[in-house]
Every structure is written in C-alpha cells, then in structure tokens.
Amino acid sequence: MSNTESVKKQGIMICGHGSRDKDAEREFGLVAKGLRERFPHLPVEYGFLEFSAPNIHMGLNSLLSQGVEEIYAVPGMLFAATHAKNDIPSVLTTYEEKNEGLHITYGRELGLQDDMIEAFQARIYESLGLDPQNPPENLYDTLLVVVGRGTSDTGANAEAAKLTRIVNENMGFGWADTVYSGVTYPSVGVGLENLMKLGYKRIVVAPYFLFTGRLIKRIQGYVDKVAQANPAIEFIQTPYLSDHPRVIDAFQNRVEEIMKSELPTGEESLMNSFKRRLAAGEVDIHHHHAEFVDPQDDTQGLSDFDVKHATFAATDNKPSSVLTPQAHSHSHGHDHSHDHSHGHSHSHDHSHGHSHGIYKHIGHPMGPRTMIGEGICCCFMGQFTDEILEEEKDKIDGDCTKTAFAHK
C-alpha cells in the first residue's frame, strides 16, 4: 500500500421507519443534529423507509455527493424487528451494489443499552415531578404501565417486557406491566382496564417510543378515555424519549461499535443475518411503495444479491412483496393500490408495501381488535382477516381515517 494512498472519507447514516405524522418526521432530525455535535468532523444524514422525506436513498445520495465512500449506517429503532432485520438491510445492499467503490457497514438497533434504560427512567421521574438525580427510595404506591410498540416479532415484544422488569426493579414501583400499541396484545385500552383492578390510585403510563406519531396519539387517546371513566385514579402520561442526551449517547455507542468493529463476540450482525436468511429463502422483503420517492433517484429496486437469490412472486396477476428463492425471473411490477377506505368491502390487497405479514395472534380477544369502533385509531384495520372483520362488523363505523383521534 502506498503511503500516499488517501483514506476513504467517512459518513454516518441514520435509518428511520418514517411516519405519516410530520411532527415525527421533524423530531427524528433531532437525532442527526445530536450526532453531528458528537461527530463534528463527519457528515451525518438521515432518511426513512416510508411515508417521510428524506427517504434513505436521498440521505445516502447526500453523503455520496459529499465525497463519502465509507458509510456507517445505524437503524434508528429501539428493537430489532422486521424493518431493522430485513427492510433496511435490503435498501442498503441495493444502494451499495449500485455505487461502485462505496462501502456501507450496518450496525445494531438501540436495544436495551444502559443509556436507553436511564433515559427512559429519567422521563418517568420527570413526569412524576421528581429529580432523576435524586430519586425516592421506592414508588410502592404507584403502578407503572410500559407501552411497547407491539410487532409481529416475538423477540421485539419480549424485549419490551424485559425493559418493564428492569425499570420496575430499578425504580421500585408497586407493580408494573406491559401493554402494546401495535398488532400484539394486550392493547392499551383493555390492558389498562384490567390493570386498574389491582386497586392502585396512581398509574404512570410510559410509552417506550423515540418520537411522536400516530401510535403515540393512539396511546394518549386511550389513556384519556380510561381516565375520564375513572376520575378517582390519577393517570400520569410520561413523554416519549425524544432526543434525551442519553438517547444520543446510545446512538453514538452504536456508531462507534461499527467504526471500531466491536460487535459482541459470537453475535451475528443484522446485515450478515439478512444475507444468510435471504439466500435461504427465509426473508420477506417489504419494498416500500409508500416511501417518499426522489424522482431523480434510480437506485431503488432489487440489488444484484437480491436478484441472484430471489424474485417477486405474483399471484392472481397481483405482485407480491414476498421473495421466492432461486426463481430467477425478475418480475418487479408495482401495483400501487392505496385503497384504505376501510368500509365493508375489505378486499385486503393493500399492495402499497406496508403489509408486515399476518401476525398469528391478530385476532386475540385482548389485541388490536379491541380498538375497532373506538374512534381513536384505525391504522391497524388492513391487518385483519375478513373473518375478524365480519365478526366485528357492528363496531365498524364508516371511514374512521377521517374522524379518529390519532388521524386528526
């Protein structure tokens, strides 16, 4: 190697999910701002999988235009579910293969780092009017309800429950339990109703979320609904994490891990796991048709690695986002069907790319079906089977996307 050979210019990319809520989009930019302060000599960009701008491609393009050849990419996600495991690696692999000379290293999700736990605890103390630096010995008179995102990924749901136990032991609540705002169970409303039977007169509801969005508004709507029906109980809503300094510390940790190649011994990286599972035909990739698309970006689509191992399977002349291994015809049609009327026809094609697979407990009696007809949120309607919708048809109230609390 020549002594005069230049070192590749480095840059940092934060990959988020995206939200239809513009407040969430703006708040995510605070992470990039925080990391720019921690890495003042490196360009830092961010982008989203869907719904929001800039998308991930646009963020990567910005780094490339600044001469970056070595990108350290981290998922801006609390736990490793489908997006962190499959969707982001697919986008990054595609982009890397279409830009010769570029190298992208993909890091870990935020996870249950001490920094994340301490940020969460600080938000809870603050909501109680307490100083996180001088906390009480215990909070035995208070019930803690942690609200997790809720996904079809069992491991991610379990991490939220683990967080609840850790925080409870650290802070000394009288009792603590976990409810979920997404597809799993128990949902927020029914979970709170059951936990109230324990008899606590003060209940802290703490959402473990990075930023605002429809799910946060869904949580707030249900807490307000339950509180109004139970005026003898004090309900305290903890704010989401946002750009708490310890959250920025956690992002910094993940960036420095990949800079220094410090992946825990014996742990498979998210990218290696993705490539192994894709090659084995075990991966469903959700190419995000709802993504904010840069019209000048021609790097969207399957990478060479994807094409070698999979193709889009089509049934009934409607393209699917499920990849089938070793079938080399590269049919990549995009039927942008955005029918979200959620009336009573419910064809459930939803081929806009935001289908995350059928969760096996989607019909659980304490799960998201309990939210039908509540007037608070209906983002989840497209995930129900026709059988569930038929059973709940008397609760369905027209097009709640125009009237529900979380959609306003």
From TrEMBL:
- Bias class Basic residues marks the residues at 353-363
Compositionally biased tracts (Polar residues): 317-327
The region called Disordered is annotated at 316-364
Give the record's keywords alphabetically. Lyase, Metal-binding
Q: Would the keyword Mitochondrion be found if you checked this record's keyword annotation?
A: no
Where composition is biased (Basic and acidic residues), the residues are 332-352
The record, for InterPro entries, names: CbiX-like, Sirohydro_Cobaltochel/CbiX
Any one GO molecular function term: metal ion binding
**Pfam families according to UniProt:** CbiX
Q: Which PANTHER family match?
A: SIROHYDROCHLORIN FERROCHELATASE, CHLOROPLASTIC
Q: What is this protein called?
A: Sirohydrochlorin cobaltochelatase
Source species: Marinomonas ushuaiensis DSM 15871
